[in-house]
Amino acid sequence: MMRGVTTVLCEREEMPMSFRDNLQHLRDLQDMSQADLAQRIGVSRQSVAKWEAEKSYPEMDKLIKICDLFGCSLDDLVRGDLAGREAASAEPSSAGGKAGCEGVVEDVPVDVWGYDERMRRCAWDVAAAVAVVILGFGAGINFTTMGPNVNPAPFIIFFSMGVALALLLVKPMWEEYRAFLKEHPQIDDFYTPEQKAESRSAKGGAIAGAVVLVVAGLNMPGLFGWFQQYTFAALAMFGCLALASAIVVYAVMMDRRTDVARYNRLSAGTTVAEPDAAKAPTAGDTLAS
Fold this sequence. Notes:
Helix content: 55-70%
Radius of gyration: 27 Å
Number of domains: 2
Number of helices: 14
Distance between the termini: 25 Å
C-alpha cells in the first residue's frame, strides 16, 4: 500500500496504464458518467476526461476520494486489474461472485461533498443567532425596568447588540451556504434510515426539553419576586426562552439536513430563479479541479 502511495506522489509519470481502464470500469459498474464522477469528487468533467485519455493524472486527495467512492484500495485502483478480477469472479469457482475491487459488493452512499458538515455548521449558526437576539431583548427589558425610573437606553443598546451579533453569525453562514448550493446543486441521499430516524427522535427530545425550559422561564418572575430590589427576573426568563428556542431551531435543522430531496428541490428552484442559470455551464464543468 505504501509503495503505491509513494509511486503516485513521486513518480506519477510512471503510473500504470491500468488506472485509466480501472477508472472506466468502475464508472461502468456504477452506471456513472464522467460528469457524475466529477461532481462527486469535486473536479471538472474535463479533468476526468483527461485522466481517462492519459493526458493528466489526479492528485493524491482525488485518488483517495475515488477509492472511498468505489470502495477499493489505492493499489487496486492504480496498479490492479479490476476488470480482470470481475471476469475471474464470474467463473463458477469464484466465491460469492464478487466483482471489481475488494469491497465493491454494494453501493454504499458516502458524503463526498461535505454536505453533512456544512449543514451542521448552518444549524449551529442559526440557532446561536436566534438565541442572542432573544437574549439581547431580555437583557434590554431587564435593565430598562431596573430601578425607580424606566430608561429606554439599555433596551436599545442590548437589543441592538443582539441583532448585530446575530447578523455576524448569519451573514457569513448564508453566503457560504449559497456558494455550497451553487457548487453542489444535486447530491445523492447518503443518509441511512437509521440516521434519519435518529434525527427525528432527537428533534422530539429537543422539543420536550424546550417546553420544560419555557415553563421554567415563565416562572422566573415569580421566583425572583421574593427579592425586593434589583432582580434579574426578565433576564433569567428570556435566558431560558433563548436557550429553548436555540435547542428547537438546532434540532429542526438537524432533522431537515437528512432530507436531501428537499435540498435538491431547493437547489433546483434557486437555479431556475436565476436568469443567467441557463447560460451557465453544468455543475460538473464549473467545479474547480
